[in-house]
Structure formats: C-alpha cells, structure tokens
Write a structure and sequence with these properties.
Length: 248
C-alpha cells in the first residue's frame, strides 16, 4: 500500500503575509510616485528627472500604513466573514432523497458543501471600511505627508539643494549623517490644521474610487493577503492621484 504524501513543510524563512503585504504596498507606493512625476513632466513638456525624495516619502508611507490596514482587514474578516459554508444543491437533493450512495460520492468528490457569499456581512464590512477605515486612512496620509515633507525641508538649504538630480545624493548623505527626517523641527499644529483643511476633499475623492475596489475585495477575494495585493494594485492609480495631490 503506497504511503500518503507527506504534507509540505512550511519554509521558516518565508516572510509572513503582513510583511509581504507591507513590502508590496511600499514598492507600489514608490512606483506610483514615479509615474506621477512622469505624468507631470509629460504635461509640462519637460525632461523626466526623478526626484527621489517624494519617492522615498511615499515608500515610507507604505511601510507605516500597511500593517495597521492589514490588521484592520483581518479584524473585519474575523468579525464579519464574507463567506459561510453551505450544503450544495446536489447534497441537499441527495439528502432529501435519502440517497446514501450519492452523498458518499459527493463527499469523495468534495462537493457536499460550498462557500457562499454572506451579503449582510459583506455590506457591513464595506460600510465600515468606507467610513471608519477611509476616514482614518485619509487623516493618516495627510498627517504623515505634511509632517514628513516639513521634516525634510532642510533639503533646500543643504549642499545638494532642492534639484531633483541631486535628490538621491541628498538622501544618501542625510541618512549617513542621521538627519534625513527631522520630526523634532515640525510645527505639528500647522500639520494638524492642514490635514483638517483637506480632509473632506480627499475623503470625497476616495469615495469615487475605493468603494468599488472594496466591494470586489470583500465579495470575490477570500483571503486578507489576496485583498491586500488587489488593493495595492488598485492603489497604483490612487497613488498617482495622491502623489499629484501631495506635489501641489
């Protein structure tokens, strides 16, 4: 009698889903900023010279904002599961007819039960994600971007200046010196006021895009990791918009 195949061993070196999602989001955020700079250069009719400072800022925002968002999505899914297991039509018909052979056959084929969309839970998750989640993310973005941009204003007075072609050297030099991001010099009252001022405009703009992405995520995709990847891919378009907004 052949031995059953041994279960695949989990690679201990494989990063966790939350780390994968964070890396994906950070890279996509950086790419979206580069695309936004390319669009701006095309519209202005100027050569594209990548400014690596905002690319870094968006990359860093992806690193900081993804873990709490990942945990938020896990909380929503745990509290309001999108799918529940229900008997298949075939299983119900076989059970109604007391057909044990048919039930055994369906059990061997794995067709006794199937996941079905829980519309009530999906709506609740969608509503919470587009109200509580959207509000927190909008405020987080504004606070982070205004704060980080202000914390890196010393770039203009550095030996590299604010020229995009010197931006990479500025980042390398300032990180070597340990003074790249100077949050201690930020006027956080100003950051808070600016974040409040643009809050509703950004929130309304997000409602024109993310509700559709959210409902597809909750209704079609079944794992948080898959939803995170889909959200990140959709986030390229949103990231371009936010990059153009942040550059104003």
């Amino acid at each position: 009698m052949p031995k059953p195949a041994a279960p695949a061993k989990k690679d201990d070196n494989e990063p966790s889903p939350i780390i994968k999602a964070t890396l994906q989001a950070a890279v996509i955020a950086g790419i979206s900023n580069i695309l936004a700079q390319a669009i701006s250069a095309y519209k202005d009719g100027t050569p594209l010279v990548i400014d690596w400072v905002p690319v870094f800022q968006f990359f860093l925002f992806g690193v900081i904002s993804t873990p709490p968002n990942f945990l938020w999505q896990e909380l929503l899914e745990t509290t309001f599961p999108s799918h529940h297991v229900s008997p298949t039509r075939e299983a119900i018909a076989s059970a109604s007819a007391s057909d044990e052979k048919a039930l055994d056959r369906e059990a061997s084929l794995g067709t006794l039960v199937e996941p079905r969309l829980n519309k009530g839970n999906t709506f609740i998750k969608w509503l919470l994600d587009q109200t509580v989640g959207a509000a927190v993310n909008t405020l987080l973005f504004s606070m982070f971007m205004h704060g980080t941009q202000a914390a890196m204003q010393h770039r203009a007075t550095s030996s590299f200046g604010a020229s995009p072609d010197q931006s990479l050297w500025f980042l390398i030099d300032s990180f070597k010196r340990g003074n790249a991001i100077q949050y201690h010099s930020v006027n956080w009252n100003w950051v808070w006021e600016e974040s409040k001022r643009e809050f509703w405009g950004l929130l309304v703009a997000s409602w024109k895009f993310w509700p559709f992405v959210s409902i597809v995520n909750f209704a079609v995709l079944k794992t948080v990791a898959a939803r995170s990847l889909a959200g990140n891919l959709a986030g390229i378009a949103w990231g371009v918009y936010m990059s153009l907004f942040a550059a104003q």
